[in-house]
Amino acid sequence: MDGLFERGRELDELDVHFARATAGDGRLVVVEGPAGIGKSRLLTEIRRRAEGSMRVLSARGSGLEGEFAFGVVRQLLEAQLTKPERREALLAGAAASAAAVFGEPDSGADGGGATFASLHGLYWLVLNLAEDAPLLLAVDDLHWCDRPSLLFLAYLARRLESQPILLLMGLRDAEPGTDPALLGEITHDPAAISVRPRPLSGAGVAEFIEERLGMAPDGEFLAACHESTGGNPLLLSQLVTALRSEGVRPDAGHVGRVKAIGPQAVSRTVLLRLARLPAEARAVAQAVAVLGDGAGIPTVAKLAGVAEGRLAAATRGLAHADILRPELPLSFVHPLVRDAIYHELSPGERELQHARAAALLRDSGAPAEQVAAQLLHTSPRGERWAAELLREAGRDAMHAGAVDSAVAYLRRALDDTPADTDRGRLLLELGAAEVFTSGRAAAKHLALAYEELAEPASRAAAAGLLGRALLFLGSGEEAASIARRAAAELPDESDDLRMGLEAFEFMTINFRAGDPRHLSRLREYRHLPGGGPGSRMLAAMAAWEAVCTDGNAAECAALALAALAGDHLRAADPALIVFAAIVTLVVTDRPEVVEVWQPVIADTHRRGSLLSAASIHIWHGFSNLRRGDLAAAEESLRTAESEFGLWGHADSSVAICRTFLAETLHERGRSDVSGLLVRLGTIDPGENTTGWWLGTRVVLLTAAGRAGEAVATADELAAHCAAIPDPARLWWRSLKAEALDRLDRRAEAIELTRQELEVTREFGAPWSLGRTLRVLGTLERDEDRLREAVSVLEGSTARLEYAKALAALGATLRRARKPTEAREPLRRALEVASACGAERLAEHVRSELHACGARPRRDALSGVQSLTPGERRVVDLAAAGRTNRDIAQELYVTPGTVEVHLSNAYRKLGIRSRSELERVLAAIP
Ligand SMILES: Nc1ncnc2c1ncn2[C@@H]1O[C@H](COP(=O)(O)OP(=O)(O)O)[C@@H](O)[C@H]1O
Ligand SMILES: [Mg+2]
């Protein structure tokens, strides 16, 4: 290769990151700059330097393969998976769900838009690769990377911490690329390191010219070259190649020639050089431009109409003219060179060539996706083979979790399918894929599918999906009406399908569709469900309706558990109605919820979509918040937040995610309240999430000392609860009471909380009952009530609420001048609050203890009792001899998180190593 000039500074800088990454401190480096500035060249140089010490894997985005499902990921990783044993080892454990990306046949999962599962599997595949040697993943031309691969790179980029991985990307700035928002997710990551190669200086340009022309340039000539290229190495090399081919000497007499070639050197000089080559060489260059870099020799030869035997001579001429690279696989020296040649073809010619390429590839048995990529560049001709092939490519992409690619192929398949043929199933497939990418398009195609399909189960499936798409688009009324219509049109024997549609229609009411009073019809279903998913959906909705109106916790929970039994509900409806059942268990404080979550979370990692993963992480976060496992709650909710970021669509789910996260951060004492209020954002009234949002706003306003606004917001919450069944019926009064108390309106506050006590006693779940008792006991300064609060919560799963009750009891005792008696509950409160990670409460309790004359040391908390639930889980697994990687896979966290938990736990336990763990744990009963 030719010499590399003036890159010492960049390489020194990169060497540092390189060393850190090799040592296990993962890095993300983005080499950015305009076309031709030398990004690819720098990437090549770094790869070369890394060869000895890292495993180097490379890939390149290419505009032509824009829709190739996971094209870049496959370029990067596929070669590692060719040997069967190694493949098995690399795809073991959590990496298993990546197998679909590499064309493994169906693993029993439906694969429907399993994007999240693919991302998670690929992440572990990369960690597995990095286990025996540090890994350099180099992705050039990131702007042209296919969207599924881009999603993965964004996912990986956030999880490099504590891994020996250097993720190195080349990115042309000012190029919108495949997906600007997603590119932004990667490049705007605070941890991303940006490197910008600079233009060559006058001295660099001189060296460059001397090397290529074998002669030092004269001063004026050099100045002209520098000025006309701005020191851009690509422009310079094209200019110099042009000068060389004309036999120009680099002296003052030829300055005019430099100026004549001018700054727009690339396309003009390339085309000029190409025109001088024999016709066969031109045809070959055009064929490579159409087929894309890396095309096979036989295909290029056929498309160019050149005998294979003569291809070598043609490519040699093209390499000499600095158009193709001198090595295989065939590729252009630069994308701009390809562009120049490609765009010289008229649009009609281009299309014709792509159509011919598609036919050639099909005849040579190329994979469906490769043919499909060519077809996407042609206009539909209604050819049956093309439609079938595109449909196959669409299914493959869907199976791999590459939803965007699937949508592109299936849309084209639809265009290629004559309107008079049976398109129902194709429309259903397309709509089902579009649900994940574009709600509007999904709604349109699913509505058509519904019209065209005849068989009842498919019709019901189309209606169910259509309803969900409409619901997430904010068209609850339409969603309800399609469900109603589809239910009415089902044949008599399809009872369970009908029930599923009915359950969905009830759900739409929570999204502002229809009259909330209709929800009371769900009371008919407050009995254990029959066998099918439809009746279980109704049971789940009935359980939730009961929680929100007049149900009793034990009965609601029994109904929810019955709905969830046997997993039929989740299989039929993984991301909507299933949450009615699970959240019922959360609000009723059932210990079973831990076991219920396990398969749900496992399953989403195995085959879930990004949207279902985000929803699951939200509700799992809420579940942990209720249980007082704040670190786990924060982790889930932040994960959900970043999944929404990757997904790129916002809806009311984002509001609920923000709500729970704000509350969690507030309890953790990590952020100031006014910041959290800003973070909470806004919400539309009457959403299914409005009640949660208003409640959190009351909490934060009260904490911020804005009690007047808090009362007003609590009144909004009260009005909301009166209009729409909402679980906040169990706690809005005590929230308002706490705000009223700040305004010295204690009598009102007490009256309101007494009313709530009737409600929560009737309901009978520890969290809400304990909460009412605590607020009332504090207001009334009634030790007995507070003791009752403590005893209601003591054996429950609601640990944070338990700590709050203890703290309230201690504080009330202290105020009653019983400091000695107060110490015991306060000490216990401090213990439990710390184990919850509830720093705000812990801080408050510490000051109470001080006021009682006790002197709690800051680090007084040690021992197994002080471990947070998350730390405890990690410690137990570590003590059982599991490696950090095993633990990370089992708990669905990153190895970095495991390390953090372990080191915190060691500190609390006063030990240094894993070997001591067993002894410490054995010492406790
Ligand atoms: N620092 C350099 N010294 C010498 N040649 C360079 C340098 N940087 C780039 N080149 C050459 O310039 C051309 C364009 O560089 P390339 O890395 O492909 O640009 P980019 O990827 O930024 O579009 C290539 O032929 C490359 O070898
Ligand atoms: Mg480049």
UniProtKB/TrEMBL annotation:
This protein's record includes keyword Nucleotide-binding: yes
Q: Which UniProt keywords apply?
A: ATP-binding, Nucleotide-binding
| UniProt domain HTH luxR-type: residue ranges | 860-925
Query: A GO term (biological process) for this protein?
Result: regulation of DNA-templated transcription
Which domain of life does the protein's organism represent? Bacteria
Q: Which GO terms describe its cellular component?
A: cytoplasm
Q: Which Pfam families match?
A: AAA_16, GerE
PANTHER family attached here? TESTICULAR SOLUBLE ADENYLYL CYCLASE (PTHR16305), TRANSCRIPTIONAL ACTIVATOR DOMAIN (PTHR16305:SF35)
Designated name of the protein:
LuxR family transcriptional regulator
For this chain, one GO molecular function annotation is: DNA binding
